[in-house]
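Today's session is about reading a structure prediction critically. Students often jump straight to the picture, but the first step is always the sequence itself: look for stretches that repeat, for charged clusters, for runs of hydrophobic residues. Only then move on to the predicted structure, which in these notes is written as discrete structure tokens rather than atom positions. Here is the chain we will use throughout the hour.
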Amino acid sequence: MNAIKKGDIVARKSHNKDVIFVVNLVINNQIAILSGITTRLKADSYLDDLEIVDKREIEKTYKEIEAKIECKAREGNQIEKSNFFKRSNKIIYTGRILHLDGDKKYSEKSNAYYKKIGLKAIVKNIPESRQVSLANELIERYNPDIVVITGHDRYDKVRKKLRRYK
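Below is the predicted structure for this chain, in token form.
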């Protein structure tokens, strides 16, 4: 019998343990419903394909991701400064981002990342079931240059509606 239960931190052996997940639900002691911890991904897996991840490995993964983000932020700042001195007589505007995300954890991560790299972003945590009904209103209210919608398929600019692929 497999000891994996709700709340455990696991990785899938069949995928070379490429993503670390938290177990959200166990169905019939056979299948686990999973959410990625560092990657926005939902998956399911047979319990016998899962392996509990050691806490040190989780900490190592978080540190690696933070280091990558810091590196990208530094690179972006250096490029910006370099371009600023080359074109110091020009004002550089970055686009305004509206990011709708159904997962609170990833909303917070995205917001922190946008701030860290100096982008203007409005991040809203909206359950995916409500995104369709609220997207148009938020797009009209904030008039963003870039729209990021996670959990749904696409924003139809012609019809000005959030649409799902069938």
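Discussion point for the tutorial: The helical segments are 55-86, 104-116, 128-142.
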